[in-house]
Amino acid sequence: MNCPFCNIITDGTERIIRQTEYTFTVLSNPRLVPGHLLVVPKRHVEKLSELKKEERNELFDEAIKLEEKILKYFATGCDMSQHYRPFIKQGRLKVNHLHIHLRPRELEDEFYQKVLIHENEVFQDLSSEEFEKFSKMFAE
After folding, report:
1. DSSP states along 24-35
2. Which residues are part of the catalytic machinery?
3. Is 137 a member of any domain?
């Protein structure tokens, strides 16, 4: 398997900055902002639903601990996200191994200036038809 995160585990731990029984944490490379962390399950999975309960608990516990460290020592805000995008080919910017991004943030930081300043143009008002469609689908 050609998985960069699995290779980190098997090739050595020089990139790993923190480890638990079921997870490891690395600085993202490439990164979006300084201090951009990735919390990664050690077992290769692609979706949250594939995690065992103890793996899921530890993954989120680690993400929360690291978010608190970011907020205490480094930044006033933190973006946390996880992406499942099987429609994108694996490459430098996309890895087919579940991971959680933690990005230290400040008001109008470089990431905001280059990317998020445009998010107002992307967001759209929720229509009543869309609300009906999705509220029924997700309520089941």
Report:
1. EEEE-SS-SSTT
2. 99
3. no
- Structural contact between residues 25 and 13, judged by C-beta atoms closer than 8 angstroms: no
Total domain count, the chain: 1
What is the domain extent for residue 39? Answer: 4-107
The pTM of the full predicted model, rounded to 2 decimals, is: 0.89
pLDDT tens by residue, 12-43: 667 899 999 999 999 998 898 999 999 999 99
- Domain CATH for 81: 3.30.428.10
* Cα–Cα distance measured from residue 95 to residue 84, given in angstroms and rounded to the nearest whole number: 10
Rounded (10°) CA dihedral 67, 104, 97, 57:
10
Which helix (H) or strand (E) covers residue 139, if one does? helix 128-139
Q: Is the sign of the CA dihedral 78, 22, 86, 95 positive or negative?
A: positive
Check: CB of residue 25 under 8 Å from CB of residue 39. Answer: yes
> Would you state the pLDDT for residue 140?
77
Model confidence band, residue 119 (pLDDT cutoffs 50, 70, 90): confident
